[in-house]
Every structure is written in C-alpha cells, then in structure tokens.
Amino acid sequence: TIPQIISALIKGVVVVAAVIFFFILVIGGIRWIASGGDKAQTEAARNQITAALVGLVIVFAAWAIVALINVFFNVDIFSLVIPTV
Predict the structure, then answer these.
(1) Where are its TM segments located (predicted)?
(2) Could you tell me if 28 and 45 are in contact, meaning their C-beta atoms sit under 8 angstroms apart?
(3) Cα dist from 29 to 19, 45, 50, whole Å
(4) What pLDDT is recorded for position 80?
(5) Which SS3 state, helix, strand or coil, does residue 82 take?
(6) How far apart are CA 78 and CA 68, in angstroms?
(7) Smaller CB count within 10 Å for the chain: N or C?
(8) Which pLDDT band holds residue 69 (cuts at 50, 70, 90)?
C-alpha cells in the first residue's frame, strides 16, 4: 500500500544518507592522512570531514524529531497510516 511505501522510503532515505555521510567522513580522513602536511589539502580534508559530520548530525536530528513527534503526538511516521474514504 502507499503508506507502507512511504514509510519504507523514509527509513531507506535515512539509512542511505547515514551510509553516504559515513563514507564521505572516511574519505575525508584518508585525504587528511594523505595530505602529507600540505596546508591546502589538509584544510580541504578538514572541511570535508566537517561537512560530513554536519550532514550526519542533520540526518540524525531529523530522525530524533520524528521520534519526538511520535512520543508527544502519538503519530508514528515510520509506520504511517493514511485514512481512506
């Protein structure tokens, strides 16, 4: 059904985003290690790591907000039920 598809899509997007940000973080760490002391490359790697961490925080903050909505308003977005006529 459509509600199940939407719920699965929301869960999938959160998982995929977390995995992508994790790999961006790892690649930034490798770039930092491989920079060899070059300030420009070190700064670029640090910016990449910072961006990955900010993205990861945003994804988990969105998940936490959805969880809080579930607790306070008893609306479970992860198992969304759309009423039919």
Answers:
(1) 6-30, 51-73
(2) yes
(3) 15, 7, 11
(4) 62
(5) coil
(6) 12
(7) C
(8) confident
Q: Say which amino acid occupies 26.
A: V
Its pTM stands at 0.73
* DSSP per-residue string spanning 10-62: HHHHHHHHHHHHHHHHHHHHHHHHHTTT-HHHHHHHHHHHHHHHHHHHHHHHH
Neighbours of 45 (CB within 10 A): 20
- Both structure tokens of 75: 């609306």
pLDDT digits (tens, 9 = 90+) for 35-62: 998 999 999 999 999 999 999 899 889 8
